[in-house]
Amino acid sequence: MAGPLSTLATANTLFDWLTLYHAPGVGAVTFHRLLERHTTPRDLLQAGTEQLRKLGLKQATIDALRHPDEESITHDLEWHEKPGNRIMNCRDADYPALLLQIPAPPPLLYVHGNTGILSEPQLAMVGSRNPTASGQRTATEFARHLSAAGLVVTSGMALGIDAASHQGALDTGSSTIAVMGTGLDRVYPARHRDLARQIAEQGALVSEFPVGTPPLAENFPRRNRVISGLSLGTLVIEA
After folding, report:
1. Partners of 206 in the β-ladder
2. Under a CB-based contact definition with an 8 Å cutoff, are residues 171 and 202 in contact?
3. Looking at the predicted structure, is the pLDDT value of residue 48 above 50?
4. How far is 217 from 204, CA to CA, in rounded Å?
5. Half-sphere exposure of residue 98, counting CA atoms within 13 Å on the CB side?
6. Buried-exposed string 139-158: b where 16+ CB fall within 10 A, e elsewhere
7. Percentage of the chain lying above the pLDDT 70 cut
8. DSSP state of 237
9. In what order do the strands lie in the sheet with 204-207?
10. What is the pLDDT, as a whole number, of residue 2?
11. Measured CA angle at 211 (ends 210, 217), to 5 deg
């Protein structure tokens, strides 16, 4: 069906990346394997059906590449166009180099805030969602001192140690990065809406999950690999 998206598909390579990203059966490992065989998503989308089958793609995936999920792609593109938002791909010059070193890095990163700090030296701070009062104070104090020393504190904005770590960095006026296990159109946990706003103002919210992705349990281990992948090291407080 022709329409605005058809025109956009020829003019905006982000549409091609999102077409592949939203296709069922294409996770990060498969995405990078496909890019090794075809230089860009556009090259892959122009391949014949038999070529795609030889790459090991199932029919459901091939069908999705031929007939993209326009609704989901439109939601992502509309989000991308809003001030302060960006969807960056792993070929972008400013994609964080350290993250590229992990196995199967996210092909796309959704960022709300300052993309520049993703390449600055970071230390991950993580720990219990139910810390002791002492553990919470320790996290806040460490974050303050580490931020003052020039490190960006990166965490997952969860309850407990994560939130205390972000707050410690914010208290010093420093940048901090929250890697989310949901789409960036929502805040989880919801009680951290004000914290998320402050982080976006002074740093960045990051996710590899498309707009609309809910807080599914299986997404948080993937979130954690991005936290560690962005960082030079990890400080665990009251695990």
Report:
1. 111, 179
2. no
3. yes
4. 23
5. 16
6. bbebbbebbeeebbbbbbbb
7. 95
8. E
9. 85-89, 108-113, 204-207, 176-179, 152-155, 122-127, 233-237
10. 38
11. 65
